[in-house]
Design goal:
Layout lengths: L12 H17 L16 E14 L15 E16 L2 E12 L4 E17 L3 E11 L30 H5 E13 L2 E12 L4 H8 L6 E4 L2 E10 L4 E15 L9 E15 L3 E15 L7 E15 L4 E11 L8 H5 L12 E12 L4 E12 L17 E12 L1
Antiparallel strand pairs: 1-2, 1-17, 2-3, 3-4, 4-5, 5-6, 6-7, 7-9, 8-10, 9-10, 10-11, 11-12, 12-13, 13-14, 14-15, 15-16, 16-17
């Protein structure tokens, strides 16, 4: 599958088969209702929805994103399939769940998993607000987009700003098991809302280990009690949106045989400030994040602490009700005190030439076409300086990476 030669089509076939599955699903949606088999009648308060998306992407040089994207034919190995359901047996009680299959490089091999599943109980609801509690697996309330990042129709682009919503570390920040309290208060000068609680982060799998250590180790990660929260302010029905999000994710490392590390902890605290302005035909969005990271009691050569910094500026313009254009400038610094990785590179001779792995500056342009309310097409181009958000699972030899690189993406998505 790693061959770049056109005489070996095995690299292309899996992607084509995925695309055919998508087209088959879209084709079935156009079959007249009288030709479809009758389905059992569902309870009136049960809602079932879903989506399927297939993407093609190609990256320059040897920089891989979501699989072997640097091959001559690009990669079709980025697809998302989701099925969600919600039921409200009582006015104040709702159950919600979503199953998801996501293929996106070695970190997401396409296995079916529980994306979220929780019970929502509203114990107070009045004219001016409400209060409630949720129990189960819930999306982490981080920034504007983390709650719905797995649904292509709710993202502003094919890829979210990687400086804030890392795909290489998505499992750590995506969802967690625990309890959330939430509330909303509506006033004449705007609406205030909050969500937060105690959780245990999802840390199993190769993706989480690669995100924490940059490689696989004999030991394993274990979740510790963590905390998360977000406060929102909306004015004029969302014309102005402001939010502050913060999480404290605590992880323990349990060493394996011969890995040379001790029983230690990793602490990750992202603090995100979000702002958005929405007009009739255009929107401006910006988010700024500080990321506090600490490795403690693992090993003298590993223990460290530093603060990362990220931000982006994004503009979207609705050309017509069906067409939308987007531009974005996205910046990530792994260590705000060493923004270009020069000190980090000098600290170890083996890091020579790798300072570009400590930052990324991404200029993005994209176009969205809502062909129908159910079917969407997207095209996107990224010009990137730096490789900080490339996964080590898809790029095991970081010395092969190029500092300046490009990426093209095309996506088709259908929802029901």
């Amino acid at each position: 599958m790693s061959s770049r030669s056109n005489s070996h089509p095995s690299r292309v076939f899996p992607g084509i088969s995925g695309l055919l599955v998508l087209l088959a699903c879209l084709g079935s949606a156009s079959v007249p209702a009288q030709q479809l088999p009758s389905l059992p009648k569902l309870p009136h308060n049960l809602q079932i929805h879903g989506f399927v998306s297939q993407s093609w992407l190609m990256t320059s040089d040897r920089n891989n994103f979501f699989g072997k994207s640097s091959s001559d034919s690009g990669s079709f190995d980025f697809r998302e399939l989701g099925l969600n359901a919600s039921m409200r047996p009582l006015t104040s009680l709702q159950f919600s769940a979503q199953m998801l299959s996501r293929t996106a490089g070695k970190g997401s091999p396409g296995n079916i998993r529980l994306d979220y599943g929780f019970m929502d109980y509203t114990y107070f609801s009045g004219e001016d607000g409400q209060l409630g509690i949720r129990l189960g697996r819930m999306k982490t309330p981080l920034g504007f987009y983390n709650d719905t990042r797995d649904v292509p129709f709710t993202r502003p682009s094919v890829l979210l700003p990687q400086s804030i919503y890392f795909d290489r570390t998505r499992k750590l920040a995506l969802a967690a098991d625990g309890v959330h309290f939430y509330g909303e208060y509506r006033t004449d000068f705007g609406d205030f809302s909050f969500q937060g609680g105690l959780v245990r982060p999802l840390v199993r799998g190769d993706e989480a280990e690669a995100a924490v250590f940059g490689k696989q180790l004999p030991g394993r990660l274990a979740p510790e009690i963590s905390y998360t929260g977000r406060v929102n302010y909306d004015l004029d029905g969302g014309r102005v949106r402001l939010a502050v999000s913060v999480s404290e994710l605590n992880i323990r490392y349990l060493p394996g045989a011969g890995d040379g590390l001790n029983d230690g902890t990793i602490g990750f605290i992202p603090l995100v400030f979000s702002a958005q302005y929405n007009a009739e035909r255009w929107s401006l969005t910006s988010e700024y994040a500080l990321r506090f990271l600490q490795y403690k009691k693992l090993h003298p050569t590993v223990d460290t602490s530093f603060v990362g910094e990220s931000y982006y500026f994004q503009g979207a313009y609705r050309l017509t009700p069906e067409w939308e254009a987007i531009v974005r400038y996205d910046v990530q610094h792994t260590d705000r005190d060493d923004p270009h990785g020069k000190q980090w590179e000098r600290a170890d001779p083996g890091r020579a030439g790798l300072r570009h792995t400590r930052f990324a500056k991404d200029l993005t342009a994209g176009l969205r076409w809502n062909v129908t309310p159910e079917f969407m097409l997207r095209a996107e181009y990224h010009h990137v300086n730096g490789t900080a958000w490339l996964s080590t699972l898809d790029n095991p030899n970081t010395h092969d990476l190029s500092r300046h690189w490009d990426m093209f993406l095309f996506l088709g998505s259908y929802r029901f």
